[in-house]
Amino acid sequence: MNISVIIPLLNEEGSLTELYNWIQRVMQENGFSYEIIFVDDGSNDGSWTIIKELSLQSPHVKAIKFRRNYGKSPALHCAFQKAEGDVIITMDADLQDSPDEIPELYRMIVEEGYDLVSGWKKKRYDDRLTKNLPSKLFNATARKVSGIKLHDFNCGLKAYRKSLTKSIEVYNDMHRYIPVLAKNAGFTKIGEKVVKHQARKYGKSKFGADRFVNGYLDLMTLWFLNRFGKKPMHFFGLWGSVMFLLGLTAVMLLGGMKLYDMQHGNPYRLVTDSPYFYISLTTMVLGTLLFLAGFLGELISRNSYERNYYRIEEEI
Q1: If you ran DSSP here, which 8-state letter would residue 197 be given?
Q2: How far apart are CA 16 and CA 93, in angstroms?
Q3: Residues 294, 246: Cα–Cα separation, whole Å
Q4: 33: which DSSP letter?
Q5: CA 316 – CA 309 distance, rounded (Å)
Q6: What is the DSSP letter of 225?
Q7: What is 72-138 written as a DSSP string?
Q8: Contacts (Cβ under 8 Å, ≥6 apart) of 81
Q9: Which residue ranges of the chain lie beneath pLDDT 50?
Q10: Residues 6 or more apart from 26 whose CB is under 8 A from it?
């Protein structure tokens, strides 16, 4: 099978039939063998009824229905496991992503050898103040931290090599960082294609401003896990040791200064009378706790099923 089109959705009954007909037309015009996987993420409108009707009309339609709303990442994860196409295409159900982009995305994966191609909605129809500007700042930060030169990490229209989708786990709200997950898994040929962004025709946006705050926290989590996930002592142990040594050095200096004043007959006061003593002691305690956190992290990592999990690309 050439292509699996994955469409996560929540309350999009107005657009589903039009989107299906559009995808079907593109596939037939280009002679692709394909499947369309709808993932109903707990809709409470008529979305699932429409999907069932489409599945009766066409053998190409498959579907997953969640009992409640879990989010886009779980929807993609389940669909990735179900998909059978050589190239996986993801798109939103609101008709803002154009199925006419599918043939070129497919070609870039198959002929140009990309592992992942992300859409870039260079010209957008969203509100500039509430969505465009925060999105630009968010993407600039993601590029800096991840080292992946994409303009639009959060674009729902993406194409993937099948092996990539079977090698990553998309969880929580990590769908916006699939390129980072791919890079961490060893799929480094990541490209970008300018795609057409269309104004929303039905329904309303399901995303609020909180996604930007959560996005930054998720990005920091990914960076930390990739850098120190299997060697937590390299982070906690290092900084714990530094803090402990700084505190110890400060205490020794306070003690040395008191002994010097005593020996030379200078006025002096008890070490415990100095606020620096308590700051130094606190620094030593925090350093010890960080070191112990690293040690516990190493014990947990040593017992993890992924401790010796390495992705082998080829064997002879």
Answers
A1: B
A2: 7
A3: 18
A4: -
A5: 19
A6: H
A7: HHHHHHHHHHH--SSEEEE--SSS-B-GGGHHHHHHHHHTS--SEEEEE--S--S-IIIIIHHHHHH
A8: 166
A9: 308-316
A10: 99, 100, 102, 103
Distance CA 110, CA 1 (A): 13
Distance, CA of 149 to CA of 190 (rounded, Å):
9
Q: How far apart (Å, rounded) are the C-alpha atoms in residues 95 and 17?
A: 11
Task: Provide the terminal-to-terminal Cα distance of the chain, rounded to the nearest Å.
Answer: 26
116 and 182 Cβ atoms separated by less than 8 Å = yes
CA-to-CA dists, residue 20 to 12, 28, 60, 124, angstroms? 12, 12, 10, 23
Query: Which strand ranges, in their side-by-side order, compose the sheet holding 158-161?
Result: 61-65, 34-40, 3-9, 87-90, 158-161, 116-120, 190-194
Per-residue pLDDT of 231-264, as tens digits, reads 788 888 888 999 999 999 998 888 888 888 788 7
- Please tell me the predicted confidence (pLDDT) of residue 308: 44
Q: What residues have CB less than 8 Å from 27, skipping those under 6 apart? A: 3, 34, 60, 102
Which neighbouring-strand residues pair with 161?
Answer: 87
Q: pLDDT tens for residues 204-239?
A: 665 555 666 666 677 777 677 667 766 788 888 888
Q: What is the pTM of this model?
A: 0.73
CB contact at 8 A, 294 and 240: yes
Q: Token pair of 104, please?
A: 């070129």
Nearest to 282 by CA among 254, 256, 248: 248
